[in-house]
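=== RUN LOG ===
request id: a7f3
mode: sequence -> structure
chains: 1
length: 314
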Amino acid sequence: MINGHGDDAFRYDHISINFSTNISQHADHSLLKAHLTGCFDLISNYPEPEAWTLERALARRLGVDEACVLVTSGATEAIYLIAQAYAHLPYDIDQPTFSEYEDACRMFGLHEGRGGLAWICNPRNPDGHVYTEDELTRLAADHELLVIDQAYERYTRKTVCHVPTAVTLHSLTKDYAVPGLRIGYVTAPAPVVARLRRYMRPWSVNALAIEAALFLLEHDELLMRPDQDEAQRLNRRLNELRGITALPTDTNFMLCRLEHHTAAEVKDHLARRHGMLIRDASNFRGLDEHYFRVAAQLPEENDLLVDVLSLACE
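=== RESULT ===
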């Protein structure tokens, strides 16, 4: 289920530049680390069975009722809760996109079909497309329940529209570049949240993750703000290379296609010879073995990627 995701640097001896994950590799966590250093007594006791304190803080921040917020262990836990809670509905997924939607639906016995549970990622992973308000409104009207995964909502300049009737997934993991802490949350109409809550496992969000999230919500200066201009520059430079097409993107990450090589070949070459990691995107449904994804990093790192790819793809 988790095989084939990005950020699999553990498979290689040494990765110095990681383009495979959409999360910034240059976040400064010094303030958060200093805060958590004084909080380790929290591990001596169980956390709240559900992260009620954090839910209240998020509700205040968002200006919504507490009954409309559910904190989960990363947005991925929310995906599986939704599939379990709505297993009686057919599912419809706009592909290519994050594979966990389909994996979760299959785990709980859902079958493909129209009109039931619709899943989209907005901005979409892997190509960075942002849906318009008209597209979202139409999807909501055509399905019993629309799930919008907005994990990358802070990774674009475009307006990410809100649909009041939808189940919306959010990721503090992405917002603050803390994937190891696994902090996500759902906003949805209160009856939907109540239904999801019935399937929650107790203590799914650990005490240090809750404390970290509460701290981060008080420090907006730590929010991720990927450099969109640099991402567009990288996109242009990649399109100048022979044998590579970089698709248009609204985010810091982009989907690319190789003309003469497979993504697996190029990924392995870059990792073993140059210490660079890209995302083999061939396991996204609807894509073939020639697709890969990269997220823009620092300008000098992006230029190095282009230089290495220019030789690898000759």
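=== NOTES ===
The CA atoms of residues 83 and 105 lie 5 Å apart.
The longest strand covers residues 253-258.
=== END ===
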